[in-house]
Amino acid sequence: MEPDKKSETVITISEAEKSPHTHFSPYRPIVIIISTIIITEGLMALFNYIFQYRLPPVTKNLMELSLLILLPSLGVYLLLYQPMTQYINRIRKSENTLYDYEQRLLAITGSTVDALILINEDGRISFMNPAAEAMFGYAKEEILGGDLHRFLIPKRYHEDYQKGLAGFKRSGEGPTIGQALELTGLNKSGLEFPLELSLSTMRFTNKWYALGTMRDTTERHNVATELRMLQRSVETGSEAVIMTNAEGEIFYVNHAFRLVFGYEPDEVLGKNLKELLESDCHGSVFYENLWNTILSGKVWKGEIANVCKKDQTFYASTTITPVFLPEGRIIEGFVVVQYDITKSKNAEDSLRRSEELYRTLIENTSEGICH
Fold first, then answer.
1. What's the CA gap between 187 and 358, in Å, rounded?
2. Angle between helices 57-111 and 27-51 in degrees, nearest 10
3. In angstroms, rounded to a whole number, what is the distance separating the alpha carbons of residues 148 and 123?
4. 3-state DSSP call for residue 138?
C-alpha cells in the first residue's frame, strides 16, 4: 500500500530498543546445570576419598555441606551473571541513546524561529519549544498538559476545533492536516494576532499526535495593509503617477494618468519615460538637466509642458524621485508625480496679457492727453 499523501509520520522502534532483554542460547542453562552437578559429584567423591579417615565426622559433614552450598551457588552465578551484565549494559546503552536523542531534539527545536507545539489525540499540549513560549507568552510549565483550545485559540473557533479534533482522534486525519493555514492565535494577555499554521501527524505507542508549526504573521499583515492603503491612495489620487525601472521603462500608471494623458495603460507600459515627457516645448538643455539630476540620485522638481494623446499641450507640476535598492545608493527605478496646472497656467497667461494690454492702454492714453 502506498503511503498516504497527508503529512503523517509513523514513529517505529527497533526490536532492540523496544526491550533491553538479552537473547542467549537456550542450551546454556542446561549445560551449566549438568556441569555443576558433575563437578559437585566429582569433588564430593574426591573429598570423601581423601578425608574419609582423617577428619572427625562433624568436620567432615560441615565441609560436605559447604561444598553442596558453594558449588551450586557458583553454578547459579555462572548461569545468571553474564545475562544480567548484558541486560544492565543494554539498559544503560538505551538510556544513553535516548538521552542523546532528547538533547538533539531539544537543540533543534530550541534553535528554530518557528513555534512548535505537539498535542495528543485528546487535544492536550505535550510539548512546546521556546519560540512557542515567546509567541504566546506562556512558560511551558503553565501550559503543558492543558487543552490547546482553552489557552491558544479564540473562543469563537472552539466549536470548529472540537469537531476537527474528534475526527483526528479516530483516524489521525482531518481537513487541515498537511495544509498551510492563515489563522488567528490568542496570547496570554488575551490579544489576538494572525499566524500561519501547518499541521503534520505522527503515531507512536498506538496514539495519534499532531505537530503544529506556527509563524507570527503580524508584521507581514501590517506591511500588506500598508501596501493596500498606499495602492488605493495612489490609484484614487488626483495626481498622475508613473513608475519606471532604472532604465526608465514604464511598468505602472494610475487612473489619474489616464485622465490627464488620455492613454490606456497597455499603450504606454514598456515604453521609455523620455518618449512620454519630452516634447518640442522645451529645449535640449532643459531635458539634459532633468535627466542628469535624477540619474545622479537627486529629486527633480519643476514644470513640464506635456503633449497628451489628442496632441494638445498641457502643463504639469512635476516631481521625479529616484528609488534606491536596500543594499545602497543603487537606483532601482523612478516615480513621477504630475499635477495638471494647465488651468492655473492659462489663468496666469490671461492675467499677464490683460496686464500688458492695460499697461499699453494707459501708455497710449497718457500720450494722447499730453498732445
1. 76
2. 150
3. 6
4. coil
Provide CB contacts within 8 A for 367, sequence distance 6+: none
How far apart (Å, rounded) are the C-alpha atoms in residues 182 and 352? 63
Per-residue pLDDT at 100 exceeds 70: yes
Q: Which amino acid is at 157?
A: Y
Q: What is the mean pLDDT of the chain?
A: 79
Note the pLDDT of residue 77: 65
Single pTM value for the model: 0.54
Burial class of residue 123 in the structure, from the number of CB atoms within 10 Å of its CB (0-12 exposed, 13-18 middle, 19+ buried): buried
- The closest of 231, 276, 215, 222 to 249, measured between CA atoms, is 276
| Proportion of the chain above pLDDT 90, given as a percent | 27
The residue among 285, 284, 288, 280 whose CA lies nearest residue 305 is: 280
In the predicted model, what is the mean pLDDT of residues 197-217?
86
Distant-in-sequence, close-in-space partners of 179: CB < 8 Å, separation ≥ 6: 198, 199
The yes-or-no verdict on residue 6 having pLDDT over 50 is no
Count of positions (residues) in the chain: 371
pLDDT value at residue 295: 93
| DSSP code for 146 | S
- Would you call 98 helix, strand, or coil by DSSP? helix
Instruction: Answer for the pair 121, 207: CB distance below 8 angstroms, yes or no.
Output: yes
Q: Are 275 and 264 in contact (CB under 8 A)?
A: no
Closest CA to 156 of 117, 181, 192, 124: 192
Q: Residue 298: its pLDDT value, please?
A: 94
User: Would you place residue 33 in the very low, low, confident or very high pLDDT band (cuts 50, 70, 90)?
Assistant: low
Closest to 257 (Cα-Cα) out of 300, 219, 297, 308: 308
Is the confidence at residue 8, as pLDDT, over 50? no
Spatial CB neighbours of 267, under 8 Å, sequence gap ≥ 6? 309
> Which residue is associated with the grid cell 508625480?
337
